[in-house]
Design brief:
The protein is mainly alpha-helical. The chain contains 9 helices and no strands. The N terminus is likely disordered.
Length: about 290
Amino acid sequence: MENPKPTTPIKPVAPTKPAAAPKEEGRAGSIFASIVIPVSLVVAYLIFEFVLGNPSNFQGGDPTKHPLPGNTLGIVYKGGYIVPILLGLLIMIITFSIERLLTLNRAKGTSSIEAFVRTVRQRLAANDTTGAIAACDAQKGSVASVVKAGLKKYREMEMDHTMDKDQKVAAIQKEIEESTTLELPMLEKNLVILSTIASVATLVGLIGTVLGMIKAFSALANAGAPDAVALSTGISEALINTALGIGGSTIAIILYNYFTSRIDELTYSIDEAGFSIAQTFAAQHHARG
């Protein structure tokens, strides 16, 4: 008889993390931003040219003349060609804010985060890991995804008999931290654009202000009587650009701080749930031991 050939033992393959979904979401977010920025500028120019610059907004139907008394659209049009840039920045602020609002609401899940965390605690206190995972499936969102990853590790550590209690708790905490690291970039996506616009809008408005003042002082520098129309146009352009720049920057700062606080609340909820999972495992494991 032939001796059987020795077989090479098959090593178990460690499970890999589902990083494909975050990468796909990140790619989609980048494509969204690359589309929104040029489209916003084009839409802003069309608004400037055909809405603000509509002849019906001006005396005699001529955009080169003064706006009709009390006509806001015509007054803003007199801000010059810096105005469409500022309008484009404002459209970007609105668009990215709506996108962030929808993303954060989706990350929050279907119900109150406080109620969700309380439910997970109750399930774990009753040693019902399956029920806690079912609560994550019902809640959905980024917070539930991170908690679910921790719960799966929790259940895995319950079946493991090669590690001591401290090692198991550390493994659960590490799993939650890694899952949080994967989710946080999706929550903060495009916030850097809002923070950039908050600074850029003021600077662009300042450029428009400087250009308007240049026109105003050029009118004053004319020989003889200064051109009143050119003088008023220059001052109007300066003030309109200042107002639009400061207004856009203010809105961007307020929204950026709002979204940042929302993300902090979600992160705190994740930390709270993760702490509860680790502490519950430590308590129950100690009680069993």
